[in-house]
Amino acid sequence: MAVDVGVDLALLKREIKKTYAAVSKEPGKDFVFPTGRGWAEDLGYPGELLARVPEGSVESFAGVANPFSLGPLQPGERVLDLGCGAGTDTLVAAQMVGPEGRVTGIDMTREMLAKARESAAELGVANVEFVEGEAESLPFPDASFDVVISNGVIDLIPDKEAVFSELERVLVPGGRLQIADVTIQRPVSEEGKRNIDLWTG
């Protein structure tokens, strides 16, 4: 059952893709949210690991917080990076889990995925893959991952129930969620829900 948020969902997805394609193509532009390496450093990302992530990814970093502040990933873990963008979190995670582990980044913005793939090749990590797809219908078998990380993505998706249902499905029993995201303290007005700009930024 589709969630009615008072906005055209297809239009919303197109606008979100357009916003994050712009972050990919014009990383130096001023957006309504902070971006880049300096921002990731301010959020307390592990310095050594972040320093190794190629500039192509980090310049388009648009996270809202640091999912690794909830704890480091362990060698050998299988990790899903939900809404991986240009791959900064994915590539930090790949270094944490080591060659015995595996990290899969999924995103719906092709331009971001292209940057992520280029950076993974530049970093020389073989334990990473990137998949185009959407959080509400993940293209992975049940119990595929030990950990799901996500950074500033779930707030963009109207059907949060579908997202969390999918995350529960793809996590192993006892798996972990390490989510950094935006929350609100008061209900959003009906007019606010219909404002595409509030969803995309």
Task: Give a structural overview.
The chain has one domain (9-200): 3-Layer(aba) Sandwich (Rossmann fold), CATH 3.40.50.150. 38% of the residues lie in helices and 16% in strands. The chain contains nine helices and five strands; from the N terminus they run ααααβαβαββαβαα. The protein has helices at residues 9-25, 37-42, 47-52, 55-58, 88-97, 110-123, 160-170, 190-193, 196-200, and strands at 78-82, 102-107, 128-132, 145-151, 171-180. A five-stranded parallel β-sheet has the order 3-2-1-4-5. α7 (160-170) links the parallel β4 and β5 (171-180). α1 (9-25) packs parallel to α6 (110-123).
List keywords for this structure.
5-stranded parallel sheet, 201 residues, 38% helix, single chain, alpha/beta, Rossmann fold
Work out the oligomeric state of the chains in this entry: single chain
Q: What are the secondary-structure elements, in order, as H or E?
A: HHHHEHEHEEHEHH
- CATH topology (fold) name: Rossmann fold
Tally the structural domains: 1
* Class from helix and strand fractions: alpha/beta
The largest pleated sheet is described as: 5 strands, parallel
Per DSSP E runs of 2 or more residues, the count of β-strands stands at: 5
Poorly predicted residue ranges = none
Kindly report the name of the CATH homologous superfamily. Vaccinia Virus protein VP39
What is the mean predicted local confidence, pLDDT? 90
What's the arrangement of strands in the largest beta sheet?
Answer: 3-2-1-4-5
Share of β-strand residues: 15-25%
Helix percentage: 25-40%
Number of helices: 9
Distance between the termini: 26 Å
User: Quick one: overall form?
Assistant: globular
Radius of gyration: 16 Å
CATH class assignment = Alpha Beta
User: Could you say what the CATH architecture is?
Assistant: 3-Layer(aba) Sandwich
